[in-house]
Amino acid sequence: MSITIIKNADxxxxxxxxxxxxxxxxxxxxxxxxxxxxxxxxIGVEVIDLQGRKLLPGFIDAHAHITGGGxxxxxxxxxxxxxxxxxxxxxxxxxxxxxxxDDTTRSIGNLLSRVYGLREEGMSAYCWTGGxxxxxxxxxxxxxxxxVYLEPVIGIGEFAISDHRSSQPTFDEVIRLASETHVxxxxxxxxxxxxxxxxxxxxxxxxxxxxxxxxxxxxxIFNATHVNRNKPLFDHACELIKLGCYIDLTAFPEGFSDPGxxxxxxxxxxxxxxxxxxxxxxxSDGGGCMPDFDTCGELVRMDFGRAETLAExxxxxxxxxxxxxxxxxxxxxxxxxxxxxxxxxxxAVDCDADLIVLNEKNEVSDVMVLGTWHxxxxxxxxxxxxx
Length: 387
Ligand code: ZN
Prior knowledge:
Elements: E1 3-12, E2 16-25, E3 28-33, E4 45-49, E5 54-57, E6 59-64, H1 84-88, E7 92-97, H2 108-120, E8 124-129, H3 143-149, E9 153-161, H4 171-188, E10 193-198, H5 206-214, E11 222-225, H6 231-240, E12 247-250, H7 263-272, E13 280-283, E14 289-293, E15 299-304, H8 309-319, H9 324-327, H10 333-339, E16 355-358, E17 364-369, E18 372-376, E19 379-380
Helix pairs in contact: 3-4, 7-8
The chain binds zinc ion (ZN).
């Protein structure tokens, strides 16, 4: 078992607790102390002195197209699978993969195989079942069976509403899927939520609002993403969160948030509007295509998401006066709470040793995943099989 001592870390658990020393044994954090650790000289120990640099929990990216997404403007626009270092290099130590528009040529089997591949390469990976459309694309025949029988499947997503690419699902279809994921969540202890892709449609979050108000299903299982993509949608999300659900912001690449808010702007607004910050999360949409449609639904421009926009968003939010302790839980402990990952999203004894070191410019300089360094001094030390 490898043993690492990380000294003089400005530790964010994600709460800031000051300068601390950390003992990592194998894949776990074993001790945290303001005092030096005294270990016998005949044990091989790696000692790293951070000299006061910030040490954070690894990011949990709950929305990434790990198989590659896209394909919305012809087969040539299918994005290739995302290599592990695109995630780990950006500080993502746990990823949740999903299918989007293309739940036809992409399958849950293919998605699971990428989850297993990323695990073999050293990071934590899970997935949603389904995709944009109703009836859902599944492996076992239903979302409930996928969740109950397939260990990495934690819920349904990304299920599209208020979007011209959705299957125009009805209220009854939405609440039936929500009840499936809720019951499977109870049976397995998994997240048991339905993660909704929101488009630019005028109906915004009306389906979710009605489901929360009119059914017995708990608000937490209705989880909307891309809610910062336009301003009226974000305003609606600010109302919806008060009903008890979580909302997810997308860290769009720079220049791509028009006509909405960048995730950094949305976080600053959430602070200003006194929203419950512990129910806001941020994800990358990594590997997903970022098409821009005009008002007639015609494609005008194409890009794809990257996990590095998470740290870019963090830096942009800090520049807007948001504090690190306000935004950091949105990448870490809030996501872990929603997804029921008890050993993730925080730096604590017995939790997984998923760690990020920031340099003085708040860039991700070092990343440890499950006790192993994947990035040291801005250089990747572990890469994917074909990188
Ligand atoms: Zn989406």
